[in-house]
Write a structure and sequence with these properties.
147 residues; alpha+beta; 3 helices
Length: 147
């Protein structure tokens, strides 16, 4: 996965006969921070289970696995672009006690309710607004040189 400005860039393999078509994106990978998670839960299997409460687990950040930065655990999850993103997750620890962990997202997908596209909200939606639809006649007229 490639990131640009902290946002995922979706890339498809190119072949000489590839036809350029609009691809419908339903899921995207994002980085998630589990803030305040006790170190005893920082094992790869445990983080995988906790990440599955948010989306489909992809991987654990290397600094989290190495326990280099201890401020938060960071995992990558694949999420649906229109799903609900919890601010907290709850789980039971080995003693049966409820544990609540804050969830922070490096980036969240922005979706438009009008056109169902991603990357903009309804207020910025160009669909049906004619943002580049001036009549052809207007565009072909020569400039008026008369005063």
């Amino acid at each position: 996965m490639f990131l640009f400005d902290g946002k995922p860039v979706i890339v498809r393999p190119w072949e000489p006969n590839t036809k350029i078509t609009k691809v419908s994106v339903k899921t995207v990978p994002i980085w998630v921070k589990l803030v305040g998670l006790d170190l005893k839960f920082w094992g790869a299997k445990c983080l995988e289970k906790l990440a599955s409460l948010i989306g489909k687990f992809v991987r654990v950040d290397d600094l989290t696995l190495d326990r280099t930065l201890l401020g938060f655990a960071r995992v990558m999850v694949e999420v649906g672009i229109d799903q609900i993103f919890p601010e907290k997750i709850n789980f039971l620890d080995e003693l049966g006690q409820n544990v609540t962990v804050a969830v922070e997202y490096d980036w969240l997908p922005v979706t438009c309710t009008k056109c169902k596209g991603i990357g903009h909200k309804e207020a910025q939606c160009r669909k049906g607004m004619g943002w580049n639809s001036r009549p052809a006649k207007e565009m072909r007229q020569p400039p008026n040189d008369r005063f």
